[in-house]
Design a protein that fits this description.
- By secondary structure, this protein is of the alpha+beta class.
- The protein is built from 6 helices and 13 strands.
- Helices cover 23% and strands 20% of the residues.
- The longest helix is centred in the middle third of the chain and has 17 residues, at 126-142.
- β1 and β2 form a beta hairpin.
- It has a single domain (3-21, 42-57, 70-81, 102-326), classed as HIT-like (HIT family, subunit A).
């Protein structure tokens, strides 16, 4: 029977309604993405002149900036949504409770995950993903004074990717978004109620003990389909030892993330459109634990999700985890 589940980290509600997967047109198979063409790929090695001047690059063999020979490359976003010097917009109405506008201050960077002409993180060699994630971590540290640093990966147009070559985006914001503030408060409230326990660490420990939604475990991290999964085959990667900030020294979970994305592609027939983000402690978080969320875009957001904020998932996370384990 359908049931409503509440995600312990976010407080979001999801209706788990697996029977809806049997209705006509509800199949979740994925077609492969088209191959990249070098002439149309500004992130390809050798096309460095087609991006803004680089901010940072990982070049084991040395070499000049904006030249070939890099493993991971960071450039400003050519069409940023936020800017460090954004000006305060004019006041439209004297009552700020009715109409409030603030300067969109912040920094937006693009991290090219590798010189390989591939469209997904899953298609990178494991060692390359390790290097890319170390650069994600380095750039978060670079923006340590920001109130919130959000690293994300969008794959395929359905996932919001305007350029196909695998890349991450980094937003350094001067405010803590409401969703992160809510999670920060849930971690704090749980720690207060339990005399200092960590919410995500306890969730992971309980999931391992139940062994119903665990996909895989290695020496660095645990991979699970969350209890309140918002979408089919959603996955969460958490460190085996709770640590508030992803950018701190320690494991990144890169090998297990690569394994997870490979499993996802094998279950669905190809790497699906997806969104992936790194959740690291925002400003003011006394109790937190970093994680990586992977959200495949296999079903559309419709009137229920957009109108109420309640999610509808047609694949129970227990079933998703079983299929991913088998893959």
């Amino acid at each position: 029977m359908p049931e409503i589940r509440i995600d312990p980290l976010t407080g979001l509600r999801t209706i788990i309604a697996a029977e809806r997967a049997t209705r006509p047109g509800a199949g979740l198979a994925v077609e492969p993405a088209p191959e990249l063409q070098r002439d149309h790929d500004p992130f390809a090695e050798g096309n460095e002149d087609r991006t803004p001047p680089e901010l940072y690059a990982l070049r084991p063999g040395g070499g000049a900036a904006d030249s070939p020979g890099w493993l991971v490359r960071v450039v400003p976003n050519l069409y940023p949504a936020v800017a460090p010097n954004a000006s305060q917009p004019p006041r439209e109405h004297p009552d700020p409770d009715l109409f409030t506008a603030l300067a969109a201050r912040g920094t937006q960077e693009v991290i090219v995950n590798g010189p390989q002409q591939v469209t997904t993180l899953a298609a990178l060699p494991v060692a390359q993903l390790v290097s890319a994630m170390e650069v994600w971590r380095a750039r978060i540290r670079h923006h340590a004074t920001a109130a919130c640093v959000h690293v994300l990966v969008n794959e395929r147009p359905e996932g919001g990717a305007s350029l196909a070559h695998t890349h991450a985006q980094l937003y350094a914001l001067d405010f803590v978004p409401a969703a992160l503030a809510r999670e920060r408060e849930r971690f704090h409230a749980y720690a207060t109620r339990t005399m200092g326990s960590n919410l995500l660490a306890d969730v992971v420990q309980a999931e391992v003990r139940l062994d119903r939604r665990i996909v895989a475990i290695d020496e660095e991290a645990v991979l699970v389909c969350p209890y309140g999964s918002r979408a089919p085959f959603q996955m969460l990667l958490a460190p085996r030892r709770a640590q508030p900030r992803f950018e701190q020294d320690g494991p990144t979970g890169a090998a297990l993330l690569h394994d997870a994305l490979g499993r996802l592609g094998r279950v669905l027939g190809a790497s699906p459109p997806l969104n992936l983000w790194v959740r690291t402690a925002p400003r003011g978080a006394e109790h937190f634990c970093w994680r990586i969320d992977v959200l495949p875009r296999l079903t559309p957001l419709a009137g229920l999700e957009l109108g109420t904020g309640v999610n509808l998932n047609i694949v129970a996370p227990e079933d998703a985890a079983a299929r991913l384990r088998e893959a």
